[in-house]
Amino acid sequence: MKKFLFSFMLIAGLLTLSGCGQKEDENALVILNYGKYIEPDVIQQFEKETGITIKYEEYESPEEMYTKYKAGSIKYDLICTSDYMIQKLIHEGEVLEMDYDNIPLYENIDPTYVEFSKAFDPETKYTLPYFFGTLGILYNKTMVDEADMDSWNVLWNPKYKGQIIMENSVRDTFVPALRLLDYSINTTDEDELNEALSMLCDQKDLVYSYLVDSSADEMIAGNAAMALIYSGEAAYAQDYNDDLDYVVPKEGSNMWMDSWFIPKTCQHKDAAEQFLNYLCREDIGMENFDYVWYATPNNAVYDELDEEVQESTTIFSDQETLENCEIFNSLDVPATETYDYLWKKLKSY
Question: Coiled-coil intervals in this record (predicted)?
Fold first, then answer.
């Protein structure tokens, strides 16, 4: 999900307006993706190499993506989003099978992450992994006691009042409370969720802000001591401020994977698979990695990274950490309504 999310178009020259993907424009590929989640030159180079025009739209959260897609006003050919939302759309029959014979560079994707994809794409026939990472805490070493940082409890420590950034996202913000209570991050038990809500209400007075796309910048500027954040944003921030470090607390967290899928609205499937094959190319994958800073599942890219980057536990968590994490499952309608209701209670508390 996941880096510097913007709800408006940032890539000059690419069309994002309603009406994209209509059949009269046969040589266009209509793509929906998280904000700032692809190197702009990658799109422009694809257009030059193939003569295929890309019509590109961005969204801020998986829930916003779902709303845009289900509105039906735009016939998307290709979408990138997070694991649990893909799982939901597969269950709803909204996803087409990929023809991996048309994506020969799929062989560059590490089988470990193809296997991981079975958590939301059990037969691994609908998706292509793009980036993955963890949810953890980015902290300023000059503003905290590092001995405090191994547990989610630090987000409730009153000595950091007004210096804690939380995610403006219901699923992410509930993770620390649920894990401290030793509950699954996928729980739908209302008693467990209400316990987590109570903890988050108690914490609210300590929170500097609930943010989505500016947590890294706030941390770079030294405006907060710590932030609940995605690993790629943390890596980006560390590149600009040497005082920052990142940890996935010992109680466990969320490991996520963002993947591409072809929705049933697709009108240009061959072009969509051609674009996916292009993204798997080593040079293109490297451009995207350098731009996004999330962990890549592409072995051809990983093998060419500097040793220092390969060994970064912010970007590439060790196996023990990943084994202590869960991925988000999609929620049914009643559970979604419960989470939404509790989130509104927290924000209005």
Answer: none
